[in-house]
Amino acid sequence: MIETIQWTDAGVVMIDQTRLPREERYVTCSTYEEVAEAIRTMVIRGAPAIGVAAAMGVALGVLRAGEEGLDAEFERICATLAGTRPTAVNLFWAIDRMKRRFAEWRGLGLEALKRKMVEEAKQVRLEDIAINEAIGRHGAAFIPDGGAVLTHCNAGALATAGYGTALGVIRAAVEAGKQVSVFADETRPFLQGARLTVWELQHDGIPATLITDNMAGHFLKSGRIGCVVVGADRIAANGDVANKIGTYSVAVLAKENAVPFYVAAPVSTLDLTLASGDEIPIEQRAAGEVTHVFGVPVAPEGTQVENPAFDVTPARYVTAIVTEQGVARAPYEESLRGMVESSLTTSGDGRKMGSSLRKEVVQF
Ligand code: MRU
């Protein structure tokens, strides 16, 4: 399995996703500030992966802290990590989880607190892999045998602690014996599809065809695409889905051509505090990502640029949302609430886990 992120004695080790596929290089972050910088610069990216990175960043910060001023330092650590990227709610979910544990274990003494925070961060990583495998099991049935699946961005092992959400569904279908091929949108401007999805699928021997983003409509109309599967960065209570810029166009084109459009995401990507996708904060990234490709200018100097990193797909375009707790369908207010409720009784954020998911976690 591709190792996206790991806790080691030297620090948090991540595969550098800005270098792939040219170079398989690993970066070691030995301070929480370095973890924050890795998230900001997209050395690590993808909603679940940045959640795991944030949890490890918090643990690293506590590990390097002293007793004096610990509470203020902890606030600084959490605020720094929370300030990295605004859209993927998994980042905030992970920080909140670490905050709750800190409060719970604060009275145990510094050494015990440090040990437990590190264990918790490692547990967030392990749970993420198990969650993705469960998403895969729930979603595999939607993948047509002998058909092609279109995906956008990278919602694979690289975007998670392992296995992937959208690509996890595809992996599970392949593991179940289906013949599956993937059309990967290149995903301008950061090229997660071209650089990461194709690399990852090649790594696993799953046939992949790279297309540019503006070819998606052509292929959806051609009848060659059996379904679309994408990941998500934040899903509002009404089922509106924030995901990589360009996802909305794919969803509209899928509906126009009667191709099912599935979203695969863990319950930690649900943000039921937001009534609709209009409330999801959309990250604006640097103009240079649009005006330059690998440092080479592709637009005249001084070009005015907009670079929203995500868009929101209204729920009416979403055929179903596949989570580790099962498959949610419209009306999403009800079905998504059901996913959160069953997650609280079965996983309980890693505290009350008595379920089959707990067994899967323990097996790692
Ligand atoms: O800007 P990125 O690369 O972090 O955006 C990633 C995506 O939009 C993914 O599709 C999403 O996080 C789901 S990852 C399982």
| CA-based shape | globular
State the end-to-end CA separation: 13 Å
For this structure, what is the CATH class of the largest domain? Alpha Beta
Order of the strands making up the biggest sheet? 6-5-4-7-10-15-16
**Fourth-tier CATH superfamily name of the largest domain:** Translation initiation factor eif-2b, domain 2
Specify the biggest β-sheet.
7 strands, mixed
**How much of the sequence is in beta strands?**
15-25%
Q: Taking Cα atoms only, what radius of gyration do you get, to the nearest Å? A: 20 Å
The average pLDDT value, as a whole number, equals: 95
Number of domains: 2
Number of discrete helical segments: 12
Structure ligands: 5-S-methyl-1-O-phosphono-5-thio-D-ribulose
CATH topology of the largest domain: Rossmann fold
Name the helicity range: 40-55%
Can you name the CATH architecture of the largest domain?
Answer: 3-Layer(aba) Sandwich
Give a brief rundown of this model.
With 364 residues, this protein is an alpha/beta fold. 41% of the residues lie in helices and 17% in strands.
Word description of this protein:
The chain has 364 residues and is of the alpha/beta class. 41% of the residues lie in helices and 17% in strands. It contains 12 helices and 16 strands. The strands form 4 sheets. It has a 7-stranded mixed sheet with strand order 6-5-4-7-10-15-16, with helices on both faces. Strand 8 and strand 9 (241-244) form a beta hairpin. It starts with a strand and ends with a helix. The protein binds 5-S-methyl-1-O-phosphono-5-thio-D-ribulose. The site of 5-S-methyl-1-O-phosphono-5-thio-D-ribulose has 17 residues, from helix 2 and strand 9.
